[in-house]
Amino acid sequence: MAAVGATSARTTPEEQIDAAHASLQAALRDELLQRILANSPGFFEQLIIDLLIAMGYGGSHKDAAAQLGAVPVTAASMASSTRIASASTASMSRPSATHPAIRWAARM
Question: Which residues contact 106 (CB under 8 A, 6 or more apart)?
Fold first, then answer.
């Protein structure tokens, strides 16, 4: 315990927040990767489409599907890939305690 107290005495609150942020971001990244790998290639294709649309590329799902010759998608896979895409784009910014990515990860 002395090492923890000594470490926090040498770091500023901002450095501690940055370290906690880095730790949460790494955990989120690992969880997202595991969830993606646990699904089918069709799910991954839909995830990429959802991610690009969430980032502002490609117009709508209909436009992207027409351009890419998308595979048939079920409502469940669409909802799941959209949640993952939302968490991915949200994790690109510095989260706060009420950040959507943190609330989403907390529900898991």
Answer: none
Long-range CB contacts (within 8 A, 24+) of 21-26: 21/94, 21/95, 24/95, 24/102, 24/105, 25/91, 25/95
For residue range 21-31, list pLDDT tens digits in order. Answer: 999 999 999 99
Predicted TM-score (pTM) of this structure: 0.46
> Is there a contact between 100 and 90 (Cβ–Cβ < 8 Å)?
yes
Domain boundaries, the chain: 14-107
The 10s digit of each residue's pLDDT in 46-56 is: 898 888 888 88
